Every structure is written in structure tokens, then in C-alpha cells.
């Protein structure tokens, strides 16, 4: 222990001899570690933001879309054919085990008029289970009921953006507005949800019963998409398989024939959406890691210079009884100290860079623990790897030749 402490003091004294050169040598490691942490923070922050936005769609969501089929060599693509019906949706809700919520997705846009104000927005036809499925809540009023669904009631629930555009600071509950010329009564106001991962304002929407949207607004008798929610994450796979089997049976699709529908799960959407950010994070981390290697080469270069400059010192130490392994440990310790101190300063710089990027560019950043630990351990490993050859070279010097060195 005393020998190690002595080596440590000698190494510190050697590094302090030329403080400017020591700082410049550590700069490569500092920049490398800081770059790795900052780049990984940016990539991880973007991935987490995407995951959070997808989670805002609801929990354990399964999406069934119409029109994925081929007829006479023509591929219709998703939602390109009227192959889903209300009866299909109700049958899935009733017969597939594990399904707890169901809501058709009837979408369109329309000019909304309230008094002397108007606004063009998205109109979404949904079921009475929509709020539960999307994990959304009301800021005021109430949602429409099963009775409104059965009677195609002319009731509407507004998003925050639409409410502000049409009613400004007034309470919209109980007011009348016109959607495409059809009068509706406002019964509810949604809580603010913010933008989705595509940058679209989720609060710029009007919700109406899906039967009303189909019959009174858009004049369609089929569904382009239906959203379902499974009771638990471990039931999604079985529910997805059962939905596909039930629809093939209802649509009389024979074995070997293409399905006229598509089933997607929230996990698939999450994996697809985050795959790009994962690749980006890996690339950014790898590019930043190159600077760590450059910093390691800088350490090796300076240590070789140090061995040359201190050849006579090494010869004296060997002549008075120092062992070769003591010389090797000393120079290796100097290299490791350079990388350790550089790594610690780089970690602080990386955190600072992440906070500056988040503040200046409004980018989401999140620094994972593995990035900090990995960057630090990698910097230490670089110190050991690139310091070993100069240390070994110093230890293998011939004492006599070293003493003669000028």
C-alpha cells in the first residue's frame, strides 16, 4: 500500500512538471467523454419523447385497419377498401377475450361555426369508451353516452384548442355550434393533451358519436379503422391473433388468401417509431467515441515523449535499486491518472452540454446511467491500453544506456 502511495505521489509530481501539456493531453479525453454523454443524451431523450407520445394514445392498444388486400392484381393498401363494418367491431368487442375497450376511428375535417367565429378542424367519430381507451379525461362537462351512440345524437366534446378558437375565454358547455351545417350541442371539454410525435396538435379536435359522424357528417357505412384495448400487456398477442382469426372467418377469407385488413399493436408502432432514434443514438455515440480514441492516442504520444525526456531519471532509479515493474507501474499510473481525471471532467462537461442543448434548442435530453458509466470506464480502459506500451518501453530501458543518455 505504501509502495502504491509512493508511486502515486511520483506520478502526480511528474504530471505537475508540465501542467499545460498535461491539460492539453487530458483535453482529448474530456472532449471525447463529454461528446459521448451529450450525443447519447440527445438520442435517448428523443426516443423517450417518442415513447411517451405513443403512450398518450392509450394503454395496450390494438389497431385494426381496413382495406389491405389485392384484387385482380391491384393492391388497395391500408383503408383503401370498405372491408370493416360496425358489426365487425362489435363482434370483436363481444367475442375476443381480453378486449376491454373499443372505439371506431371515423376521421374527417370540417368548418366549425359558433356565433360569429369559425375554425377548420378535425372531426373524430368515436365510441363512449374512447376516453378510457385513450387514457384521456374531461376538464369540464360530460362525455356522450351509449344512448347518444344508438340515436346518432348531435352532441360534441371539444379539444382545448377548438374551445379557445370558437369560444375564447367563455365556458363552451351547453353552447351550440355547427359542424358542416349540422347543429351540435357541446357537452364536454377535454383536458389539454399537447402535440403528438408528428407535431400535430391533439387538442385541435372535435369528438362526436361515431354513428353521428358516419350518418350525419361523412355519409359512410363502413369503418376505415377501429381501436381496441387489451386488459393487460401479456394479453395483446393472443387478442391480436384472435382478432385476425375472427375477421378472416367473418369475411370468409380462405386459406392462402390475402387478408382484407391489417392488425397493428402499440408495441409494433413503438418499435418502429423508436428504431430510427436508436440507430441515431448509436451512430452519434460511435462518432463521439472516435474522439475518445484520438484522446487515447494523444496520451500514448505524450507518454512516449515523457519516457524519452526522463530516460536519465529512469536510469538513475534503476541504478539505485528500482525494479522494472516499479518503472512500468509508475508510467502506467500516470497514463491512467490522465484518463481518469479527464473522464471525470468530461462527465461534468457532458452534463453541462446536455443542459445547454436542452435550454437553447428546446431538444429533449436524458442522460442514462449506462452512458456515464460506459464513457468513464472506456476512458480508463483507453488510459491503460495506450499507456501500457510507453510504460513497458520505460521499464525495458537498459540502466547503463539510460544513464549515458543526454
Strand content: 15-25%
Number of domains: 2
Radius of gyration: 33 Å
**N to C succession of SSEs:** HHEEEHEEEHEHEHEEEHEHEHHHHH
Low-confidence stretches: none
Question: Helical segment tally?
Answer: 13
Q: In which order are the strands of the major sheet placed?
A: 5-6-11-8-10-9
Quick structural summary:
With 406 residues, this protein is α+β, with helices and mostly antiparallel strands. It has helices at 2-17, 19-55, 86-95, 130-134, 146-150, 160-167, 210-217, 236-250, 266-309, 311-319, 324-361, 369-395, 399-404; strands spanning 61-66, 70-71, 74-75, 99-104, 106-114, 117-126, 138-141, 155-158, 176-179, 182-190, 205-209, 225-230, 261-265.
How are the SSEs placed, and which strands pair?
Elements lengths: L1 H16 L1 H37 L5 E6 L3 E2 L2 E2 L10 H10 L3 E6 L1 E9 L2 E10 L3 H5 L3 E4 L4 H5 L4 E4 L1 H8 L8 E4 L2 E9 L14 E5 H8 L7 E6 L5 H15 L10 E5 H44 L1 H9 L4 H38 L7 H27 L3 H6 L2
Parallel strand pairs: 6-11, 8-10
Antiparallel strand pairs: 1-12, 1-13, 2-3, 4-12, 5-6, 5-9, 7-10, 8-11, 9-10
Amino acid at each position: 500500500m505504501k509502495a502504491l502511495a509512493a508511486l502515486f505521489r511520483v506520478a502526480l509530481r511528474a504530471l505537475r512538471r508540465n501542467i499545460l501539456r498535461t491539460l492539453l493531453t487530458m483535453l482529448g479525453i474530456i472532449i471525447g467523454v463529454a461528446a459521448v454523454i451529450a450525443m447519447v443524451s440527445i438520442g435517448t431523450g428523443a426516443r423517450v419523447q417518442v415513447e411517451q407520445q405513443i403512450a398518450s394514445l392509450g394503454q395496450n392498444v390494438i389497431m385494426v385497419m381496413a382495406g389491405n388486400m389485392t384484387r385482380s392484381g391491384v393492391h388497395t393498401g391500408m383503408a383503401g377498401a370498405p372491408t370493416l363494418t360496425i358489426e365487425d367491431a362489435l363482434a370483436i368487442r363481444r367475442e375476443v377475450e381480453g378486449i376491454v375497450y373499443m372505439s371506431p376511428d371515423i376521421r374527417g375535417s370540417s368548418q366549425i361555426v359558433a356565433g360569429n367565429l369559425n375554425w377548420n378542424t378535425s372531426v373524430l367519430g368515436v365510441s363512449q369508451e374512447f376516453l378510457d381507451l385513450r387514457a384521456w379525461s374531461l376538464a369540464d362537462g360530460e362525455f356522450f353516452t351509449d344512448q347518444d351512440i344508438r340515436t346518432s345524437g348531435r352532441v360534441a366534446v371539444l379539444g382545448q384548442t377548438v374551445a379557445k378558437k370558437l369560444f375564447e375565454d367563455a365556458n363552451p358547455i351547453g353552447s351550440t355550434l355547427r359542424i358542416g351545417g349540422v347543429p351540435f350541442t357541446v357537452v364536454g371539454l377535454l383536458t389539454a393533451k399537447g402535440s403528438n410525435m408528428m407535431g400535430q396538435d391533439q387538442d385541435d379536435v372535435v369528438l362526436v358519436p361515431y354513428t353521428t359522424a358516419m350518418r350525419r357528417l361523412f355519409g359512410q357505412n363502413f369503418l376505415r379503422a377501429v381501436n381496441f384495448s387489451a386488459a393487460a400487456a401479456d394479453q395483446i398477442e393472443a387478442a391480436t391473433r384472435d382478432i385476425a382469426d375472427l375477421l378472416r372467418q367473418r369475411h370468409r377469407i380462405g386459406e392462402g388468401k390475402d387478408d382484407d385488413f391489417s392488425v397493428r399493436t402499440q408495441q409494433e408502432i413503438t418499435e418502429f417509431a423508436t428504431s430510427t432514434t436508436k440507430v441515431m443514438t448509436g451512430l452519434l455515440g460511435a462518432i463521439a467515441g472516435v474522439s475518445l480514441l484520438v484522446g487515447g492516442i494523444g496520451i500514448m504520444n505524450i507518454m512516449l515523449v515523457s519516457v524519452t525526456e526522463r530516460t536519465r531519471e529512469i536510469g538513475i532509479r534503476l541504478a539505485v535499486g528500482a525494479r522494472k515493474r516499479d518503472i512500468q507501474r509508475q508510467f502506467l499510473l500516470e497514463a491512467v491518472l490522465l484518463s481518469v481525471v479527464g473522464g471525470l471532467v468530461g462527465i461534468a462537461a457532458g452534463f453541462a452540454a446536455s443542459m445547454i442543448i436542452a435550454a437553447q434548442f428546446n431538444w429533449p435530453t436524458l442522460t442514462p446511467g449506462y452512458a456515464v458509466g460506459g464513457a468513464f470506464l472506456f476512458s480508463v480502459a483507453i488510459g491503460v491500453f495506450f499507456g501500457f506500451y510507453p510504460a513497458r518501453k520505460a521499464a525495458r530501458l537498459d540502466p547503463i544506456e539510460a544513464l549515458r543518455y543526454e
